[in-house]
Amino acid sequence: MQYGMPTLVENSVLEENLSLCRKLGLSFIELNMNFPEYGIDTLDNTEALISAGEQNGIYYTIHLDETFNPADFNPLVRKAYLETAERTIEAAKKLVPLKDRFGDPSQPVTINMHMHHGIHVTLPDRKVQMYDRNFDVYMDCFRSFIAFCEERIGDSDVAITVENTEGFKAFEQQAVDLMLKSPVFLLTWDIGHSKAEGEGDVPFILARKDRLKHFHIHDGRENPHANHLALGDGEIDIAARLSLAEDLGARCVLETKTVAALEHSVEWLKQHNFK
Fold first, then answer.
1. Which has the closest alpha carbon to 147: 74, 86, 69?
2. What ranges in the chain are assigned the alpha helix state H?
3. Each residue's pLDDT tens digit, 123-134
4. pLDDT for 207
5. For the segment 142-160, what is each residue's pLDDT rounded down to a tens digit?
6. What mean pLDDT value characterizes the chain?
7. How many other CB atoms sit within 10 Å of the CB of residue 258?
8. Reduced to 3 states, what is the DSSP secondary structure of residue 69?
9. Spatial distance between the Cα atoms of 169 and 135, rounded to a whole number of angstroms
């Protein structure tokens, strides 16, 4: 099983992340497009990314901007998100040989995405989710998005992995199930987020574990709400989650937010014979 790290806010350039990744004996970096230094223009420059990866013996996965929303009701905004997806997929395709050289050739280059909850309207007695109110429009957007991704990914070794965050809403579960019918979509389990949200997503995720190929690993607790903790600093049975990931042949990002927490987590893995 291969472990990687996220791009960290303490490291302002790719070289600092690569150096830390190599120092800790990790295999890959998940490039986070929320950071301007890893936005679409950087991903377009795959030659520089590949050269840096080759020099360090490290490959990459990708995390889409958290605002990414292929179901935005504004067609102009939606078009921009689809172009972002298209250019990200093209970059991921070019990163496949790097993954095959330094990673597991049986695992695709993954593009991680969140489900955008959309806008809600607060009434005196309840909140109305606009995607729930306009569910048919919402699902039509996802049907188009799935077809769009299938055409552009084709038979390349690239997959889009859908991550749980603050809990999948009912309408999102239906969209996720629609995506998982496609061969180019898989699941990401963020174990810290699910813990902080009371493990409400766990039955949904485990019922689809045949599509679960990517993990965000960090510790967390439900009360008080906390995640992105170093391994061992929260309430999660980390060993059980890692054993499941290993059984599923999944890839794991140690998604802590600081260098110190990442170093602590790598040491925890060694002490518990997971690395």
1. 86
2. 14-23, 40-44, 46-56, 75-102, 130-133, 135-153, 170-180, 191-196, 202-206, 238-248, 259-271
3. 999 999 999 999
4. 98
5. 999 999 999 999 999 999 9
6. 96
7. 13
8. coil
9. 12
pLDDT in tens, 13-29: 999 999 999 999 999 99
Beta bridge partners of 30: 6, 61
CA atoms of 208 and 164, how far apart (whole Å): 13
Q: Name the region of 146 (left: φ>0; alpha: ψ -120 to 50; beta: rest).
A: alpha
Q: What is the 3-state secondary structure (H, E, C) of 89-158?
A: HHHHHHHHHHHHHHCCCCCCEEEEEECCCCCEEECCCCEEEHHHHCHHHHHHHHHHHHHHHHHHHCCCCE
Pairing of strands 251-254, 212-217: parallel
Residue type, 192: G
Q: What angle do CA 130, 131, 133 make, to 5 degrees?
A: 60
Extract the tokens encoding 250. 């999944």
Two structure tokens written together for 19: 């150096």
Rounded to two decimals, what is the model's pTM? Answer: 0.96
21 alpha carbon, distance to own chain's centre? 18
- On the question of pLDDT at 208 being above 80, the answer is yes
